[in-house]
Amino acid sequence: MSHARRSYGKALTDLFLSDYFVLYMSLAYFLVLVPFLPTLATPQNLSNILSNIWPLLVVAIGQTFVLAIAGVDLSQGAVIGLSSILCAMLIATGANPDVLAKAPVWGLIIDEQGGLFNGIAAAIPLAILLSLCVAALVGLLNGIAVAVIGMPAFMTTMVLMLIFGALAIYLPLSENINQLPPNFVMLGKGDLISLYFGTKAESQIPRKIIYSFVTYPMVIALAVTFCAYVILNRTVFGRQILAIGSNRTAAKISGVPVTRVIILVFVMSSVCAGIASILYSGRLEAGRPTLGAGAFLLDVIGAAVIGGNSLFGGKAKIKWTFFGVLFFVLLSNTLNLMNLTAFVVDMVKGGVIVVAALLDVWRSRLLRERTS
User: Fold this and answer.
1) Is 44 within the bounds of a domain?
2) Do residues 149 and 139 lie in contact, with contact meaning Cβ atoms separated by under 8 Å?
3) DSSP 207
4) pLDDT exceeding 90 applies to what percent of the chain?
5) What is the CATH classification number for the domain harbouring 254?
6) How many domains does the structure of the chain reveal?
7) pLDDT value at 217 more than 80
8) pLDDT score for 313
9) pTM here?
10) Does 9 reside within a domain?
11) CB-based burial, 212-221: b 16+ in 10 Å, e otherwise
């Protein structure tokens, strides 16, 4: 009996320490709630869940790199808002003077005829490139402040969050930028099957399923995920990131270019936020200055941590981030289906993050005991 109990306990421990623990937990959570929330398994809701996964995954991947060096990037939300509004202002096909005439950018970047790049053949790629460069600049400032000046990452990124978040709101005076080109909107919610096979494919396969599985956001997010996996797991740079997170002093003594790596990590985090802003803006068909405001960072950090990435650095995997995003989006979706108030939803999410941090400590302790 005791042998069976020990075997059972070992199996549970192995499951808890598995890289796929959060994936198993997500599947179990889904199966348990389906009988009580039938809407959860409908094609429309599954499509909504998947569409929410891709942009959040891109942002969380950027946050994963920062967590890996034992840091945190609170400026991602501001970067999303600033990149969204900047890109939209440049490519808008028109604008309402009654709404934007008093904005400081009126007549300089945008007017009744549209944005500065409207009418240019390569308007969308140029606007995206410029917005990503601005995002990278924010990351560069974060990296320099943390790695060169020695400021705490929490304080630095919080200050830049306030500055650039306010700038994003000031430029259009809190107004959204609408009238975006269809090709840009397609990046946020367009599907590939109907593009290549036409309406015939849509008549054979429900459109919601097409949107769910073969979309531009999916392709973009998975491309970012693959690149992040290669960087973190298959390059010297990735090993340097984890070494800095484990012990920055030891990494520096070992010859790791700590300053350069930290700066690049923050740049990558901001660029990921800039890419996510494109997906969000396209999906919403508008540039929104408050796109990354509110409790958005709660979702990003929660998704990155719940998967198994450590808040203390030195331990991070891209698949953990993917599983964490899946669970967090599923959690948010079910809480909304329960018609809970925003306050309750935020409290539950906060509790999940605390539990995730406690589980991280417990997992680390069990791993140490096993290896000792």
Assistant:
1) yes
2) no
3) H
4) 60
5) 1.10.3470
6) 1
7) yes
8) 87
9) 0.90
10) no
11) bebbbbbebb
